[in-house]
Amino acid sequence: MIFNSILIANRGEIACRVIKTAKEMGIRSVAVYVDADKDAPFVKDADESVKLKDGGYLDADQIIEAALKTDAQAIHPGYGFLSENASFARKVKKSGLIWVGPSPHVISVMGDKLKAKELAIKADVPTLPMTSNPKQASKIGYPLLIKAAAGGGGKGMRIVNKSKELKDSIISAQREALNGFNDDRIFIERYVEKSRHIEIQIIGDSHGNVVHLGERECSIQRRHQKIIEESPSPRVTDEIRNKMGDAAVKLAKQIKYESAGTVEFLFDDKTGEFWFLEVNTRLQVEHPVTEEVTGIDLVSEQLKIARGEPLQFKQTDINWKGSSIEARLYAEDPNNDFLPEIGTLIAFDKDESVEARWDSGVTKGTIVGTDFDPMLAKIISYAPNRTDAAGKLAKALESAHIGGVKTNRDFLINCLKSSEFIDGNTTTDFIDRVNPARKLTLDQDSLEHVTAVATLWLQARNRDNANVANFMPSGWTNGRLPSQAVVFEHEGSEIKIGYKLMRDGSFKLSTGKNANIYSADNHGIDCVYDDKRHYAKVTKDADKLLVHMPYGDVMLNIKPKFVIPGLEVAKGGLTAPMPGKVIDIKVKKGKKVKTGDTLVILEAMKMEHSIKASEDGTVTQLLISVNDQVENGALLMIVE
């Protein structure tokens, strides 16, 4: 089954990731894309690309047609979309193409969380109490966790604390699962509040060989989606690893598993007990940390297995060296319940001097919309020990120059630097328990420093671009006029920085500090302020100024001299906390509502978000309809 060309039925960073290994193996790659991705890096990285019409990445027939049209011999599904769709895998094989992944039968059995649980029970692997019948939910006991039977990534997941929440939670989970996986089946299991998510990477060939590549810990999550993953786990001992690994391999061998996959367990931090959760019959987002500590390229192994080659290593050959940690950088607002953000990336530059692996599907100029998951990149560090791996990852995030949309970067940095993380105290309640700062907070001195740097950069650029009297010193006047000044806005606060060029070439600032410019160009400035010198990358986009400081990026707005008053939001107005599509309205005009009542459900990035009443009141105006597309801050209704 030798092949020299593949089509990647996916997008973004995973398409880029598969293309990278394909190139290293001398395999031609074909990408598919939709209008929203026409300028995405993966489209240009591939040797050839085909545009998909209606149906996009979930249209199996169109994807197979694109493969046949471009003479691709195999299809790699990536993760998400159709990667765990047995029907798609069957169609691929029926069309004469090679499927890079486990057999359709295995996908049906192990990819279906309900069937996988039944199989785990038969294999004597411990499982949590569960049911697919809502009427049996009370027998399990609250709190409960609703999960999609056909997928993962947090889609179709809901925590239910009380019986009165069950019905609406099931409806919402089913709708989200159908939208994300084209399958609305759900099941209900006991929710364990304090635990760890430990997953075992398995890999098997068509010759009956199955091995595990150790564990990954993925306990730090928000909205049931992982944001920090690592290998090895700070809690798993060699004994526990062997037990979990043996259970995962036993399960995989029982149904003759081929390709890469992941067996997930819920781990009790106190007792060391673990329970089987699910099987992901695909590559995982967090697979790089396993690659870093084992030295095994998982995509390469997938392609070799699809060609019919046996594994070139046995379980005793697998060694784990050092520590690797991955952070997922998302376009989202941690201060707004981590809801997705949209916009254009005005900067996306990593610092090449900081050793880290960046798996990304975006660049400067990428438009982050509402069509897909808002992940911008995975940043992966490796070091001989966990403490250094955490420090390197935090430094890589701090050193990057990224802006244009809000991200969770500063939150990730604060997670990685927390004493609880360094100590390995990373159970699933980490975010609620530790509550790391969700944004970069500047004290007055820091705010004056960054605005002074921004002012000096603007002054230098204005001088370089001056067309009239550019031979005169900056700010020269033959009258006694006030010093030049720039006014900035940062998170609702105004900062005015006045400056005056002195005879020795230095600047006197209204902050009372002196400054010097060593060099400045369109990309940044090397300057001294209050005896502290550093090079700051600077990116300007209209009235936005993104300034990179030693601790990270700061977005400033340059205030115009004459401000046109904006429209005021009506009193009692309920506004959209993010851009999205209105998929359900729970109230009508004239209805009384109570604090906490769900009023509107928005969909963005294939996830549902409930907009709730912040106080008791009556709906006096309803300004939206189902299927409306609304922008962030749009007025939805008036509740008086």
Automatic annotation (TrEMBL):
Pathway: Lipid metabolism; malonyl-CoA biosynthesis; malonyl-CoA from acetyl-CoA: step 1/1
Keywords: ATP-binding, Biotin, Ligase, Nucleotide-binding, Transit peptide
InterPro entries registered for this protein in UniProt: ATP-grasp, BC-like_N, Biotin_BS, Biotin_carboxylase_complex, Biotin_carboxylation_dom, Biotin_COase_C, Biotin_lipoyl, CPAse_ATP-bd
Residues in ATP-grasp domain copies: 115-307
Boundaries of every Biotin carboxylation domain copy: 2-436
Pfam families: Biotin_carb_C, Biotin_carb_N, Biotin_lipoyl, CPSase_L_D2
Domain Lipoyl-binding: 559-640
Catalysed reaction, written as an equation: N(6)-biotinyl-L-lysyl-[protein] + hydrogencarbonate + ATP = N(6)-carboxybiotinyl-L-lysyl-[protein] + ADP + phosphate + H(+)
Cofactor: biotin
UniProt-listed PROSITE patterns: ATP_GRASP (PS50975), BC (PS50979), BIOTIN (PS00188), BIOTINYL_LIPOYL (PS50968), CPSASE_1 (PS00866), CPSASE_2 (PS00867)
CDD domains: biotinyl_domain
GO terms, molecular function: ATP binding; biotin carboxylase activity; metal ion binding
Summary of subunit composition and partner proteins: Acetyl-CoA carboxylase is a heterohexamer of biotin carboxyl carrier protein, biotin carboxylase and the two subunits of carboxyl transferase in a 2:2 complex.
Main function: This protein is a component of the acetyl coenzyme A carboxylase complex; first, biotin carboxylase catalyzes the carboxylation of the carrier protein and then the transcarboxylase transfers the carboxyl group to form malonyl-CoA.
Name this protein carries in UniProt: Biotin carboxylase
